[in-house]
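Example 3.2
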Amino acid sequence: MDNRLSDKRQVVLYGAFDRYNYGDNLMPILLEMYLTQKHPDKTKDIEFVFSSIKDSDLTRYACKKTVAMRNLLNIKNDSTVIVVGGEVLGADIGVLFTHVQESPIAVKALRFIRRVSPGILKAIAKTRYDAVWEYPYIPNKDSFKNKVKVVYNTVGAVPNSSQAKVINQADYISARDQRTYNAVEKICKTHLVPDSVLMMSALVDEDFFEQQVRPELVKKLKDKKFITVQACPYKVKFTAQELASELQKVKEQHGLESVLLPIGYASGHDDIEFLEKVKACSASEMLLLDELNVWEIMYVIAKSNGFYGTSLHGVITAMSFGIPHFCINDDIEKLVSFLQTWSVSPYNNPLQVQQISSSVALTTAVEKSNLDKAVEKAQQLIFSSVDEIADIL
C-alpha cells in the first residue's frame, strides 16, 4: 500500500476497521460522506486518510483501505485525527489483537492467556500487532511529529483510569450512550450524541442502494415479507434449536419469513457459525446470506419488517430506517445502554428468545410514530455534533 501523503492537511479517520465488522467499517465511510457533502468548503483542501492499527484492504466488502497509524505520526501540521467511534475507549492492545485473528484456535488460545494473565497477552500483542499505544484508539498527541488535533466521535466503553490524562488532551469528545458519557464527563467536557452510524438513512437512498447492491440479492428479497435475524455465538443465552423453533412460530403466526444475516465477520464474532446451526435446525427452509458488503447488509435490514440480534450496529441500522429492532440478550451492555439512551418503547427493552414471536405484534402506528420522532431527534444531534467537528478541522 502506498502510504505517501499529499501536501494537504490530513483528516485521519482512525478506528477498528482493519478487519471486516460491519459497523466499525461503516462509521468512517459515513463520516467522510457527511463531511464532504455538507461541508465542501471546509473539506476541499483536506486529504482524508483511513487508518487503523495495521494496513488493510477490505475493498471487496466496499470498505476503505487503511494505513497503519504507525506510518502517520508525521502528518502535516494542524491536521486532525478523528477516532470515528465504536467500543474503543476501553480496548487495550491485547483485546484488539484477539479480534484480528483468522484462526478460531488462535482466538481460543489468546482468550485463555487473557484469563490467566492479561499482561502476557499484552506482551505478545505488542510484538505481533504494531500499535502505537497500549490503548490503541486513545491517541497521544505527544507521539506526533507535528501539532495535531484529536477528536473522538461518538465513542463507546469506559476508559481505563490510566488514560485520563491522554483523553483530556482531546479537542472534542462525543460519547454514544449514557454509560460512556458518565465515565468520560468525569475527565473532561463531553457531548452525549448517538452513534453516528444512525445518520445513514439521511445519506443513503434507493438510488444509492441500486448502485451498491447486487441485483441477485435484490431479486432474492423482492416481494418477500421477512424479519432479519443475527446472532453472535458468544453473545446468546439460547441454543440454535430454540431460536429456530421460535422463528418457526413467527412464520406460522405472522406469515413472516426469517432471513439469517451474519454481521460480525471478525474473530470474536463468527455469526455465520451459529446461524448455520439455526438454519440446519429449522423445520422450514431459511435464507442464510453471507459474504455481503456493508451496503448490502444495510439494504437487507432496511427492507425487513424487523431486526432481532446481538449486534449494536444491526440494531442501529434498523432504527435509522424506522424498522422495529430488538436486542435478544440483556447482558450486552453497550447495546442495552444505547437502546435505553436513544430508542423508544418497546424497542428499548431486551427480549428473551421465547418472546420474539409475540414481539412482532408490538409495533402499531403509535410506536412507529414515536420511533420516527426519536430517530429524527437523534439524527439532528448527530448532524449538530459533526458540524462542530467540521469547524475544528
